[in-house]
Amino acid sequence: MGPDAKLFLMSDTALPSLTEVASRVKSASYVLTEVNGEQRTEALRAMARCLERSKTEILKANISDLERGRRSDLTKTQMDRLTLNDQRFEAMVAGVLEVARLPEVVGQVVKGYTLPNGLSVQQMRVPLGVVGIVYENRPNVTADAAALCVKSANAVMLRGSSQAIETNLAIGDAIVQGLEDAGLPGEVVTVVRDTTRDGAIEFMRLNGYIDCLIPRGGPALIRAIRESATVPYVLDGDGNCHIYVDKGCDIEMAKKIVANAKVQRPGVCNAAETLLVHEAVAREFLSDVPSFLRGVEIRGDDETRRYVLDAMVATEDDFATEFLDMVLAVRVVKDLDEAIAHIRRFSTGHSEAIVTNDRQAAERFKREVDAAAVVVNASTRFVDGNQLGLGAEIGISTQKLHARGPMGLEALTNVKYVIEGNGHIRT
Ligand SMILES: NC(=O)C1=CN([C@@H]2O[C@H](COP(=O)(O)OP(=O)(O)OC[C@H]3O[C@@H](n4cnc5c(N)ncnc54)[C@H](OP(=O)(O)O)[C@@H]3O)[C@@H](O)[C@H]2O)C=CC1
Ligand SMILES: N[C@@H](CCC(=O)OP(=O)(O)O)C(=O)O
């Protein structure tokens, strides 16, 4: 946290303790079990209206965060993520409305049967309760997460980045207004004001209050979670994403996919970080890198540097790095086996892609590459809740239990057994 952010918090006296805040959120989560889906959907529409009404204040708060960010020397990527311009603001509001339109998931019977003794058994979809989220400095995540949680009848505690605190609080105020207009307690969506690291550790230990913590971030956050969290969590970790360009593939298609995955938004977790190229197409594909990856710094192995003349030497560290920038590590491989072996060694289990014309290679890649998403002949940038039809995502899970990949409404629920009898007793 930068020094200015600390001052900002210190001037905000008399903050209730985190446990007090969490206790109010927990109570609010019970209210959500008493209202129906239509009321929750109406609350989302009210949230969108209030966001729109508060646009000027929210964008002003964002300018203030950006100014503080500039003074604390945030990187270009961090500044880009923090920026909420007019277009991004409207996309954020549209996202809330898109989630509102999604079908109801709460109360859905995912499985139902009657036993020979006449007992009726159902598995019914239910909310998790209170969701906690620690997330990066992208302010739209505040609205996305709030919308998904309200729609799925979860209360949510949002611990965003200190870099975005003013914007998050302004968004949170508008959302609370929307909830209250719709007759729901504002505490259903609570932006945590304390953005200190100590506060984050306390947040990870809110047992009895947080039912599921979703940490979105890089290795430092994930380490802190592993060391300190005592609440159950679903890790949404960093994306060291690869694209493998196979022999015999459509080279023009491969160029478009690689350029999109690297350049369209390099600062996000589903952007490509390493390119693996089959040796049979290395000359043809890599010789054209300066034109289709203009502005991208290439760090390549010896073979790559034969074709990309201004490429720097790639180190082992480069292959392990999520650059989140206009930098790409490149390696020429002998075959699919070598590509898969490289991915197994360096992947963070987020998103991995192959460009190929060979059906068998595609099938092998789908089966043998262990990641939350495997992509064939498309950009890794599609691994996004909105793009995959979930309306939005609360994060992209890189772990295997409970949920994997972009987490939408279903991932914010679990099932409970509902057993109905007629005076049945067990003998
Ligand atoms: N899989 C997914 O869904 C997503 C993955 N990511 C990944 O996140 C990273 C980019 O975001 P970036 O802003 O750099 O992420 P960081 O990991 O630096 O920050 C994310 C959040 O974690 C907090 N945090 C970071 N380190 C610690 C720590 N040691 N203890 C407690 N809290 C901590 C930050 O607080 P503060 O900023 O106040 O320091 C922030 O709120 C990339 O690796 C990207 O791939 C991002 C979003 C989604
Ligand atoms: N949802 C994003 C990607 C996932 C994400 O949250 O990325 P990040 O900007 O690293 O926080 C998108 O593709 O637009």
UniProtKB/TrEMBL annotation:
Top-rank taxon: Bacteria
UniProt-annotated location(s): Cytoplasm
InterPro entries, per the entry: Ald_DH/histidinol_DH, Ald_DH_C, Ald_DH_N, Aldehyde_DH_dom, G-glutamylP_reductase_CS, Glu-5-SA_DH, GPR_dom
Entry EC number(s): 1.2.1.41
Keywords assigned by UniProt, alphabetized: Amino-acid biosynthesis, Cytoplasm, NADP, Oxidoreductase, Proline biosynthesis
Coiled coil, from the record: none
CDD domains (alphabetical): ALDH_F18-19_ProA-GPR
UniProt pathway annotation: Amino-acid biosynthesis; L-proline biosynthesis; L-glutamate 5-semialdehyde from L-glutamate: step 2/2
Keyword presence, Metal-binding: no
Annotated ranges, domain Aldehyde dehydrogenase: 28-298, 327-417
GO molecular function list: glutamate-5-semialdehyde dehydrogenase activity; NADP binding
A single GO cellular-component term on record: cytoplasm
Pfam families per UniProt: Aldedh
Catalytic activity reported: L-glutamate 5-semialdehyde + phosphate + NADP(+) = L-glutamyl 5-phosphate + NADPH + H(+)
Enzyme class: oxidoreductase
A biological process term (GO) from this entry: L-proline biosynthetic process
NCBIfam families hit by this protein: PRK00197.1, proA
HAMAP family: ProA (MF_00412)
Its biological purpose: Catalyzes the NADPH-dependent reduction of L-glutamate 5-phosphate into L-glutamate 5-semialdehyde and phosphate. The product spontaneously undergoes cyclization to form 1-pyrroline-5-carboxylate.
Family: Belongs to the gamma-glutamyl phosphate reductase family.
Name of this protein: Gamma-glutamyl phosphate reductase
The organism of origin for this protein: Ferrithrix thermotolerans DSM 19514
